[in-house]
Design brief:
Blueprint lengths: L13 E8 L5 H15 L3 E8 L7 H10 L4 H14 L3 E4 L11 H6 L4 E4 L13 E2 L2 E2 L9 H5 L6 H17 L1 H5 L2 E4 L2 H9 L7 E3 L18 E5 L8 H10 L5 E4 L16 E3 L5 H9 L1 E6 L9 H8 L4 E4 L4 H4 L6 E4 L4 H12 L2 H19 L1 H42 L1
Parallel strand pairs: 1-2, 1-3, 3-4, 4-7, 7-8, 9-10, 9-12, 10-11, 12-13, 13-14
Antiparallel strand pairs: 5-6
Length: 422
């Protein structure tokens, strides 16, 4: 039964945010924290259940523990039960559950009839690795309940890890713990929504909730900058090799990378002379990096969800060059806020960078138009309204199911009474 609220304005929400941080900093943590800040700024109450995978990176023992925890975790189930009993939240928002939380957390939430929203910044419900990428190429072999392909193709370049990912995804699908335990799935783009529909998620359970940024962080686009920049994880699937090839083809233009080089071992030893790598940076250092940028490049070779860095660049009035893949053409308006090119076509990437870099008027125009679009469609105020509408849909869905269940229970009890009376 839902708990009665006491001593609290009914218009305020008490939200429990549930997330398993990745081993290294990622955009998912930034996005989840942004939503939490947004809720608090609007007078709502936010609590966290948060785990971290950082300790798993260099520990064989913890990797074994993570293998089993990702399939089922009694401790996570008990922890969630105790926490919700104490906090009595109005709604639970879940993001990443692997490995330490697992699908096990949904049963106590369902038993307490709590409305649950799951934010889906990747494709992990259908692809064990979450990227639809295998051996550097787009791969959809696991769709339709064929997660074993992750192990057969060794998609994680680690046999044990690939097997673990395949097993936990298979169990999550077969047990229906996620599908039955989540009232609303929040995807980031229309492209991703279609993928989830194709994967079997009912349309009634899907809503688009894009990433957002604070309008207060927007800067007047009056500084061109000098560098062509890459921001994020410099990994093969993010197109870092294409970025470096473009840099070699344009030696007179300074290129810069803001991201942890550990994602691509040895990258620091083979950088062209015109490329500078800054490592992972955040806060004011990242803002300064963006200000020094003339063009942001998103050369992804996988299905991104919604790169936060696009909004960060547009807020600063910077044009974007991106691969024409996945949701990127939906986020970036070609010839209005930037340029698109076909993935793997390095010549087209080089041409787009050269064309835009040498045309300061187009850089300014694209930057100004990108900033206006970002403020109109992706400001925190606009996205907050969508978030609350999403929460309300989840709560209404849960109320209807509870009412239906109660009605069925009464009907069954009435039938049993009639049988005994006769």
């Amino acid at each position: 039964m839902p708990w009665p609220r006491q001593g609290k304005d009914k218009s305020d929400l008490r939200v429990l945010m549930v997330h398993n941080d990745y081993g290294r900093p990622s955009g998912e943590e930034e996005a989840a924290e942004s939503i939490a800040r947004m809720l608090v700024e609007h007078g709502h109450e936010v609590h966290w259940l948060r785990k971290s995978s950082q300790a798993v990176l260099n520990s064989r023992i913890r990797q074994v523990g993570a293998f089993f925890a990702g399939i089922h975790s009694c401790s996570a189930r008990r922890e969630v039960a105790r926490l919700v009993d104490r906090l009595q939240p109005d709604i639970v928002q879940v993001q990443n559950i692997f490995p330490w939380l697992s699908p096990s957390i949904f049963k106590p939430l369902r038993l307490r009839e709590l409305p649950v929203v799951m934010r889906c910044p990747n494709y992990r419900l259908f692809c064990p690795s979450g990227l639809h990428l295998s051996r550097g190429e787009i791969c959809e072999r696991c769709l339709g309940g064929k997660e074993y392909w992750c192990a057969l193709r060794n998609c994680e370049s680690n046999r044990v890890k690939s097997l673990g990912y395949a097993l936990r995804s298979t169990w999550a699908r077969m047990s229906r713990a996620i599908l039955d335990g989540v009232d609303m799935f929040a995807v980031l783009t229309e492209f991703q929504r279609q993928r989830y529909l194709d994967g079997g998620i009912p349309a009634s359970k899907l809503a688009v909730l894009p990433n957002s940024f604070s309008v207060d962080t927007a800067n007047a686009p009056n500084r061109l900058g000098t560098t062509v920049s890459f921001i994020g994880r410099p990994a093969p699937e993010k197109g870092i090799e294409q970025f470096l090839l473009a840099a070699r083809a344009l030696p007179h233009i300074p290129f810069a990378i803001a991201g942890n080089p550990i994602c691509t071992p040895g990258i620091e030893n083979r950088l062209p002379e015109n490329v500078t790598i800054h490592g992972f940076i955040a806060g004011e250092a990242l803002e300064q990096f963006v200000q020094e940028t003339r063009i942001l490049v998103i050369p992804s070779l996988c299905f991104d969800s919604f790169p936060n860095v696009i909004l960060r660049a547009q807020a600063a009035g910077k044009p974007v060059v991106a691969s024409r893949l996945g949701p990127l053409p939906e986020i970036l308006v070609e010839n209005e806020t930037g340029l698109l090119y076909d993935p793997y076509d390095t010549e087209k990437l080089v041409s787009a960078i050269r064309k835009l870099y040498d045309d300061s008027a187009s850089c300014r125009r694209f930057g100004e138009q990108g900033q206006r679009r970002a403020i109109t469609e992706f400001s925190q105020e606009a996205c907050f309204e969508k978030l609350i509408a999403l929460y309300n849909r989840a709560r209404e869905t849960k109320r209807r199911r509870h009412a239906l269940g109660a009605s069925k229970h009464r009907a069954k009890a009435e039938c049993e009474r009639e049988v005994h009376a006769s």
